[in-house]
Amino acid sequence: MRHEQIEKFTLKTKVTQKDFGERWGNNRDEGRDFNSYTTGVDESYLSIFETKKMLRSLDVELDGLKHFARVFEFPELTDEANTIVAAMHADLNTILQLWHL
Fold this sequence. Notes:
The chain is an all-alpha fold. The chain contains three helices and no strands. Helix 1 (2-26) packs antiparallel against helix 2 and helix 2 (41-71) packs antiparallel against helix 3 (79-99). The model is unreliable at 27-31 (pLDDT under 50).
């Protein structure tokens, strides 16, 4: 049961990372990415902070799964999801730092 939950969560983080990548700069046609002038500063900041909030909710979910994975002695199952979430946090922090230049 927990294995399935971790696999579903890992898939969720992959989809979230893909969406995050599109918002970062691969999807300029929609004007929703963080780096688009057409989005505007205020709207971009809101988008950045909404994304930060979403990442924090992933952190909470991941922490719960990591706890169960450690208890049941298969912590390596959460490694991929942990790496993906950490990378999204790092990328978002980089975006925010660029906005503050």
